[in-house]
Amino acid sequence: MTQLVHDFETGGMEQKDLLGGKGANLAEMTRLGLPVPPGFTITTDACRAYLATGSVPDGLFAEVDAHLARLEERVGRRLGDPDDPLLVSVRSGAKFSMPGMMETVLDIGLGDASVEGLARHTGSPRFAWDSYRRLVQMYGRTVLGVEGDRFEDAIEAAKRAKGVAADVDLDADDLRNLVAGFRAVVEEDAGRPFPQDPREQLRGAVVAVFDSWNSDRAALYRRRERIPADLGTAVNVQVMVFGNRGPDSGSGVAFTRDPATGAAGGYGDYLADAQGEDVVAGVRNTLSLDELERLHPGPHAELLDIMRRLESHYRDMCDIEFTVEQGRLWMLQTRVGKRTAEAAFRIATDLVDEGVISEEEALGRVTGDQLAQLMFPHFDLHADRTLLATGMSASPGAAVGEAVFDSGTAVSRAAAGRPVILVRRETTPDDLHGMVAAAGILTSRGGKTSHAAVVARGMGRTCVCGAETLEVDVRARRFTTHDGTVIEEGDVLSIDGSTGEVFAGEVPVRPSPIVRWFEGTTAAEDGGPVVAAVDRLMRVADRHRRMSVRANADNAADAARARRFGAEGIGLCRTEHMFLGERRELVERLILTDTPEERQEVFDELLPLQRADFVEILTAMDGLPVTVRLLDPPLHEFLPDLTDLSVRVAVAEATGQPHDKESRLLLAVQRLHEQNPMLGLRGVRLGIAIPGLFQMQARAILEAAAVVTGRGGAALPQIMVPLVGAVEELRAIRSEIDAAAHEARVAHGVHLDHRVGTMIELPRAALTAGAIAEAADFFSFGTNDLTQTTWGFSRDDVESSFFSRYMEAGILGVSPFETIDRDGVGRLVRIGTEEGRRTRPDLEVGVCGEHGGDPESVCWFDECGLDYVSCSPFRVPVARLEAGRATVLRERAGRGRGRTHDGPGLPEAGPGPS
Ligand code: PEP
Ligand code: MG
């Protein structure tokens, strides 16, 4: 039969799966000979069996009894003994730390008889009755489901009646009365008395801890931290030591380094005459470690020595819970401590300098998410803030400005030096100039791959989208919150793109020193310890990474910034933004023309404009590859709104105004109207439906390359065809591009190499990649559309409509638009890569969907053997760091290079260490 209970003496820190983090570390500290009160751990196997069947596994409590008997023998006291009772604590402890999410019951073993024995034996009736009231309170709430407030109310009433402010001012008699009151509350609320049998208490507490794995708050925490729902928790039963035995006792928490800044040196809080959660619950003011030294020099010195030992043993910053009982130090818990992003970088590099870990290991200790956090300006957390709504954290950062409701106003106010927040129900390509001008963008609809989100991230602009509780009335230039607060145009707003929060008024913002360093405005040596740590680990990542990193950029300014951030080329230059503004009229003409001659006239006008666009970008990326995607979105996006145009034509008809052109336009708009534009006339289909369009773009790209080359630059254009589903589509367009290349060569008299590739963004493209590779020099996975078409999820709608339900129900742990769905979309990436390379072993393969900047997805692309990831300029450092981490973690796990590997995913940066 599987052993379900293990004494602390027999385990170790490597057994977190079985013993949970707390149990494994208690065992490890025991093994190290540290002063740990003895005890045993009930395994996660036992919990999983209980959760699966609804009943405690056979033999569990017999095993518990046997371990308890040994414990009693060892400490020379018995549970429930009326003279000198043994008391135990029962604590949860899962593999991954879930602080405060599950249950704990302390002081198990007390009853009406043994409390008197405890009072006699310790000579402190107050202590005995305080312990008893804690037990009835915790057991009542946790095991018997009594409303916690009822106990708190009773304590408050007792303090009021006595005219005192603190719990320590209640004496033994007060506490005895409180116990009587608590027991009455239990009987009334739970319908049964508080159990006097200590074994019944122990069993009830164990089951309550098992059950707490599935409490709402624990389930919510797991979803947020991406901790698997089926791990279960271990249960630790441990001899109680008492921090509440008077002024020479107390309990504390400590970190071996400062968890906020990473600065070396211990850091902690101690509370005299206190137990359990008191120290973190804010019941009384705590003391620092220095003050503890004055109070208890012996235990303080021992604690510092243990902290040093633990840090060198765990080779990382540790956090610790300890108790001082009548001047004697006891260790109750340790684990690798949680820390801020800033502290993570600093501690990792400090440990390298101290010779504790290697640079490669240090790289594994920081994450792209932490780097991203350091790169955004953030609001001052100590400032007063009035929350109006919470939407989706679409593009991080902190932005403050006047609310404006249309792009024209955004541009004019910004030009007058007034920062603005552009507020829309949703944005369209028409809003681009407003988004460029705005400090931040707020929408009430749309998800993380909506137009607003993608464009904002591309520009490094702060964006909150899908703030559904806001009623945005663009015409009236105002929005209303769920509680009726009205924000008018010109009112100041602050939006936090990292949390999705929207605040009224101006919240003070702090800029990021890391970005100033990336931008080259601060030198690494002048940036302080965090900049120095980031600089160092970026170098380690760059030295190790196998994949290169490109940027998604469609203008010279973004390209230049991406280069400063370390981009090694452009992986996606979307050309649709080049057809807006004044050029829109040319697109209208293109759509209205009936003859090839008229169409050619439009192309002749567009060609020099496009060429100039590409000259700028190729110049900014001189010497690096620039992947230009031919026009992709549905044509109607360039046309007037159907309803507006119908009204204009109807009014013109009624008033006898000339409306010939508008009527023709209306017919075209009606003809091009689609029920599902994302699945309609877009991508390669446009190129085939409008002969000459892609040829003109290809020619402009190649002529631009010729111009740049002629100036002595090195242009490396790659022409990319979107939304291909069949090799025949690519072949048809490729012959047009080859013809354009020929024309450009002749016209400019220069030799030009040109490469033609395709996006893989439809399942059919991934599944027929072997055939498509016959006509492609490179692939780039468009994982936004690939996710949309694989799942059948509309990328503009689903995140704000039903994803929260899916998350709550545990159907999705994270949006597949944010992190690649490895089993479905990710598998298509792998299949497409492998089959494409089978046809053409030198096929270059990259990814340019939003996932290219997502840390977890970058690891997956490394596994699949991709050559590069491409992401918005601002994410480039994150992708560099994660690409380096992917290589180092894979090599440390002893795996080969990505191309043929079939194993499970890399270790993830998800759940924190425990
Ligand atoms: C994609 O689909 O992943 C992609 C990069 O193209 P877009 O987002 O422009 O459709
Ligand atoms: Mg796409």
Q: Looking across the biggest beta sheet, what order are the strands in?
A: 13-23-22-15-16-17-18-14
Number of strands: 32
Q: What is the terminal separation in angstroms?
A: 29 Å
* CATH C-level class of the largest domain: Alpha Beta
When the domains are counted, the total is 5
Mean pLDDT: 90
Rg, alpha carbons: 33 Å
Low-pLDDT stretches: 897-914
- The oligomeric state is single chain
How helical, in percent, are the residues?
40-55%
Query: Which term fits the overall shape?
Result: elongated
Number of helices: 36
What percent of residues are in strands?
A: 15-25%
Structural class: alpha/beta
Give the key terms:
disordered C terminus, binds magnesium ion, D-amino Acid Aminotransferase, Chain A, domain 1, elongated, alpha/beta, 914 residues, Acyl-CoA Binding Protein, binds phosphoenolpyruvate, eight-stranded parallel beta barrel, Dna Ligase, domain 1, eight-stranded mixed sheet
